[in-house]
Amino acid sequence: MRDGQSTRRRIDDAALRLFVAKGVTETSVRDLAQAAGIAEGTLYRHYASKDDLVADLFAGNYAAFARRLAGLERLDDVVAEVFRFHDENPTLFRFLLLVQHQALPRVPDGADNPVSVLKALIERGIREGAITLTDAALGTAMVLGLMLQPATAVVYGRLDPPLSRFAATISAACWRALNPPKDTDHA
Question: What span, in angstroms and rounded, lies between the C-alpha atoms of 26 and 187?
Answer without folding.
Answer: 43
